[in-house]
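Lecture notes, unit on protein representations.

Consider one protein chain, 379 amino acids long.
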Amino acid sequence: MTVASQGELASSTDTGSRATVGRIASLDWIRGWFLCGSVATVSLLAPRPAALEHAQWIGVTVQDMIFPLFVTLSGCGLAFAYRNSVGWGATLRRSVVLLACGLAYNAVGAGSLDLATLRWTGQLQVYAVLVLVIGLLHLVARGAAAWAVVTGVVALAQAALLVTWQSDCAGGQLSPECNPSGVADLALLGPAHMYAGGALGYDPEGMVAVLGALVTACAGATAGHLALRARGSRRGPALLLAWAAAVAVAAVTAEQALPMMKRLWTTPFALGVAALGIVALAVGMAILDLPAGRRWQTVRSRLSWLQVGLGRNSLLVYFGSHLLMLVLLTRGGDPPWAYDVAEAVDVIGHPRASLVIVMVLGWAAIAAVLHRGRIYLRP
């Protein structure tokens, strides 16, 4: 990871921004609120409510939406980063660093560096591929209209793949025994390097899921270009809401042929979660980025300071919190360290809630210190 000062960094997902271009504070602000929820959910020890467990197959829970929302907002940030030409050495380096960090994360979880059985897929790996592909697409797609077309083309391609595959499945329904991931990811990775050793019949972060994540990221990139076009204009939130409505309609249309599910990141899910993220960005833009009097500018700047600080170090907080909880949950025997820590920090008579509060406040404090020093970490 590298460190960038505020003048060097226009977004925590930027890959070479310029200090002369003003920030769009709403993106960091919305990411900050998202990160508070992300840290809280990842820190909640079992037993967890059903909404905070991944759906077994078809269906969507709150837990299923956390990383895809991050992908949507990251797509917006990448649009900001690639508004001008960016050096490909930096882009490639960032993707390689993300891939390496993802493999290291998997090794920590497995407690082994055995390359014969190390899982190759994961959220960081998905993000690494998205950074590279979005960068490549910016060579040919410039501006919101072009990115809306890219989003439509990628969504149609994914939907065609899944619908065609589904037609050959028993009952005309995708299943763990009949899905493209079970064939493509198995052939590409081999069972030893897939999620759960390939025993589930698919990989929720394999190449098929990456295609769905790309739909979400492209929709987010379109929103990013719309926000850039309307920066400082009162029509900005309206443009974003119009795009969110179009994406939502496409999601409902796709759901007539495909199930809504995170496990394969299907087209209706990819578009639906993107629409939700874009609506959040529109609300943030209306609150923080529209022209206002000096007094309101001062008030909103102070009230949003902490969330903006979290958002500008989103990669650190999001993946750092996941790594910390992974260590706490996989070390220390039975029970693992996480439960001992929860007991140690309990000041309200509820260890599980106390751990959530401490984790959220702890990561907020780290982000605040870095933000005050104008230090932002990026791959």
